[in-house]
Write a structure and sequence with these properties.
The chain contains 1 helix and 13 strands, in the order E-E-E-E-E-E-E-E-H-E-E-E-E-E. The protein has one domain: Distorted Sandwich (Deoxyuridine 5'-Triphosphate Nucleotidohydrolase, Chain A), CATH 2.70.40.10.
């Protein structure tokens, strides 16, 4: 890893060449807001925090889910995705979780980022404007070539599915 003006770039070997990966993600504010842009909250943080952009607070009853707007849209460069993940502290303390975690934000999506949350706790959770509700990790994407096959190669596992390897 290398540091550029306080920013860290990742070095990766691809086809025998060393590439430095530091995607630039453009952020568009969709509403007038005093909230800061998503940012890393520590030197080695993997994700940027996503904040609720609400006109009024939202109370989630136990097992209730909702799409919480963030007030931003992103331009993620081709070859990357945004992975929306839960924040561990809120998950532990309150039971605030994400229904589809990680959620994927594709590079060609330009709509508002919304976070689908669920209250897995026993008490109602109040989400307020500016609350940090999730985090987003930017990651490289590998696209596969999909080919139809009459049969698949053998493996030691075969078609053993759910729970096949034991507890």
């Amino acid at each position: 890893m290398r540091s550029y003006r306080g920013k860290v770039a990742m070095r990766a070997a691809v086809n025998g060449r060393i590439l430095e990966i530091m995607p630039q993600v453009k952020v568009q504010r969709l509403r007038a807001s005093a909230m800061p842009l998503p940012r890393y909250h520590s030197e080695q943080a993997a994700g940027v925090d996503l904040m609720a952009d609400l006109e009024m607070e939202r109370v989630l009853r136990p097992l209730e889910r909702a799409a919480i707007p963030t007030g931003i849209a992103l331009e993620i460069p081709p070859g990357f995705e945004g992975q929306v993940r839960a924040r561990s502290g809120r998950a532990l303390r309150e039971g605030l979780a994400l229904v589809n975690s990680p959620g994927t934000i594709d590079a060609d999506y330009r709509g508002e980022i919304q976070v689908i949350v669920i209250n897995l706790g026993a008490e109602p959770i109040t989400i307020r404007h500016g609350d940090r509700i999730a985090q987003m990790v930017f990651a490289p994407v590998v696209r596969a070539e999909i080919v139809e096959a009459d049969r698949l190669g053998e493996s030691s596992r075969g078609d053993g599915g759910f729970g096949h390897t034991g507890r």
